[in-house]
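Hello,

Our lab assistant flagged a job as stuck in the queue for most of the afternoon. It eventually completed. Since we weren't sure the result was trustworthy after the delay, we are filing this so someone can double-check. Below is the sequence as submitted and the structure that was eventually returned. Let us know if re-running is recommended.
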Amino acid sequence: MPAIPPMDGKVNHAPHVVLLGAGASIAAYLDWGSEGNELPSMQGLIDTIGLREDIEKAGFEANGLNFEAFYDELASSGEHPDLLYEIESKVYEYFSSLSLPDKPTIYDYLILSLREKDIIATYNWDPFLLQAYMRNENIAEGRRPQLAFLHGNVSIGVCEKDRVSGVNGRVCSQCDQLLSPSKLLYPVKHKDYNSDPFIKGEWDALRSSLNYGYFLTVFGYSAPKTDVEARSLMLEVWEKNRSLELAEVEVIDIRLKEEVEDSWSEFFFSHHYMVVDDVFDSYLFTHPRRSCDAFSSATLMCAPWHDNSYPRFEKLSELQEWIEPLIEEERRYDDEEEQFSGKPLEPNTEG
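-- returned structure --
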């Protein structure tokens, strides 16, 4: 028999696990109006960050270049170390220059959608997730999700001696030495997720949550079958999840549904999955901070909750003000064991 997720009245304590790929950051960039430096895709990366001249000077044809395959060949062969260094330096410099606009973004909605029991694991190098996490601290301090940076991140620094990570550019909380930039994992066929202590720790955090997760949302990540290590690390713990027969997988992707299903079929149990092409139509955004609670109420107790969909806001303060009643409800549960109501919030968007 599957394990019943840890329920307490209308409160579900099992984690909601969110996986982010490059498509999530591209969707956020387009959604906020494409302000600021362009977010490069792998297909357009060499021109966006100014690598074409370096590649051609080294004797390679840049037109139609598959960057992932090209980098893999460079890294595997050990040839052209100067070009490899130039690529990595320009990638780091460019991604470090990216920043969120002042207006609320998909990343702000995402951070505020989840509780401290949940986790967001990202494959992305850009700093958007941490920037959103930090600027929503005032409204959700102590009640934000865990973050895991599976391929490293330009916004994260580490102290290898004390095994401490934090915001890049700050000092270690143990030794007061400046944190070193985290290692970035590049698109090679066989990635090493174990040799770097920081990367390994991030994967351990994700795997721990997958082992107990009740809802898995994948946003803008294609789960390429060529990335054998990543797929196996996730799948081996997901398949052992004692709530698997009850859990749900949600994939947010603009590809054809059939392509999405093919990419993620190994992670589906029977018909327990959904595919949407807009994050604002996702279960995550139609039941913010209550996704696992609402889903288990609907499927286990035949008592579905009304949607509590996010309105769209022009100011970050408006989004924070709208979410505050849900956070207050969580505080009352902690202090007085008052159950979640399951009622939608007022859709008032006035500032």
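-- support follow-up --
The delay was a queue issue, not a problem with the job. The result is valid. The chain has 14 helices and eleven strands. The domain at 11-34+102-150+185-336 is CATH 3.40.50 (Rossmann fold).
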